[in-house]
Amino acid sequence: MSLQNMTSMLQRAQKNGYAVGAFNIVDYNSMRAVIDAAEELRAPVIVQTSVKTVLFWGYEAVMSWMTQLTQQAAIPVAIHVDHCTDIEVIKRCIDAGWTSVMIDASAKPFAENIRLTRQVLDMTASCGVSVEAELGAIVGVEDDIHVKAQEAHLADPDQAAQFCHELQLDCFAPAVGTAHGVYKGEPKIAYDLIKEIAARTGVPLALHGGTGLSDAVFRKCIGLGCAKVNISTQLKYAHIDGFVNYHQENKVYNPLKPLAAQYNALKAAVAENIKLFGGAGQA
Ligand SMILES: [Zn+2]
Questions:
Q1: Which letter, b or e, does each residue of 48-61 get, where b requires 16 or more Cβ atoms within 10 Å of its Cβ?
Q2: pLDDT band at 1, cuts 50/70/90?
Q3: Of 85, 97, 127, 179, which residue is the least packed, with the fewest Cβ within 10 Å?
Q4: Using CA atoms, how far apart are residues 283 and 272, in angstroms rounded to an integer?
């Protein structure tokens, strides 16, 4: 158990009709909240780091928290770098101990996306690190990747089939109408596209832009084949609000108090999502 890649946890989730939550952390407190919430619910979990977070703290620091927090964990935990466009960063993450990586070459032409993704698969083949790749363009801002509404486009199902046929991915992230950040208006999810891509590829799908989707939308997407659900923006709010609200209410200059409140807010948000995605009791 404990630290592993996401291959078998996603395959089990896909087979049994639930999804593994992938939660973006930004520091030790948020990583601890994610792992503790999953542990209490006996759920497999994916700790996700943006490239920005990795570069802010350094590879070794982030990995040392992970090692320490998973040593006693009785659940499977993966550490995954989210939306990475830089092969060098992926290489450094693998060397530091990340168990899973996302190569996001979705902004490149199709053939170039395949070539770069294959390069990452070649790098990970011998070290047991799982790989996620993206096709299409998901609207919104994630890390340093900005996709404007007029540039966003859904994944083409024929290209998706070819992409997954040529590449042995552990997880596939086709753009299906979800958005990064906060939704402006009702999201338009291409359910038929999710269904078709899931059927034609057989690969566990990742649902990006999870924050703000309704419970019913989550259930439908998971039922259609989304085995990994990414939650980032919601945790950014819990992180800041958990700390700030405590301080505004109590005005005590003891940083450990608002940090504890922040941890509790993050843990509650993570637990709520794990239960919603059906992951509780699956570890
Ligand atoms: Zn994303």
A1: bbbbebbeebebee
A2: low
A3: 127
A4: 17
Query: According to the model, what pLDDT value does residue 145 have?
Result: 74
Beta strands in 115-221 (DSSP E): 130-135, 140-142, 145-147, 171-174, 205-207
- pLDDT at position 277: 98
Average pLDDT over residues 11-27: 98
Distance, CA of 149 to CA of 138 (rounded, Å): 9
Clarify whether 144 is annotated catalytic: no
Closest CA to 178 of 220, 201, 212, 131: 212
d(CA 209, CA 194): 15
The residue from 27, 36, 82, 241 that is catalytic is 82
What are the structural domains of the chain? 2-277 (3.20.20.70)
pLDDT at 203: 98
Sign of the alpha-carbon torsion through 72, 46, 212, 181: positive
Q: How far does residue 208's CA lie from ligand 1's centre (Å)?
A: 4
Is the pTM for the entire model greater than 0.90?
Answer: yes
